[in-house]
Amino acid sequence: MDRYLVIEGNNLEYMSRSLSVTLRVFKGEKMLVASNRELGIVTQGKDWNNLMKNIRDVIETYFDIPSADIVKINLEIDPMVSENAETASC
Predict the structure, then answer these.
(1) Considering the chain, what is the average pLDDT of its residues?
(2) Helix extents (H) in 1-90
């Protein structure tokens, strides 16, 4: 299990960089969707940049961390939505 340690409330003293999340990215009815069924994480965005921002937000909220920078985010991108994927980043 991935772990992190928080000292004195929100004062982050140490955090393991072993946190890793894989999200499946696919095209919904009107938006791009990223999800991880095992964790129950789902977010969406109208374009790649919006989706990447929302992925960071949902990761920070799920793990209750100040920044998604400490989490390795892996995207499994459906071939139907891979257009323009290389220009966006988390």
Answers:
(1) 80
(2) 48-63
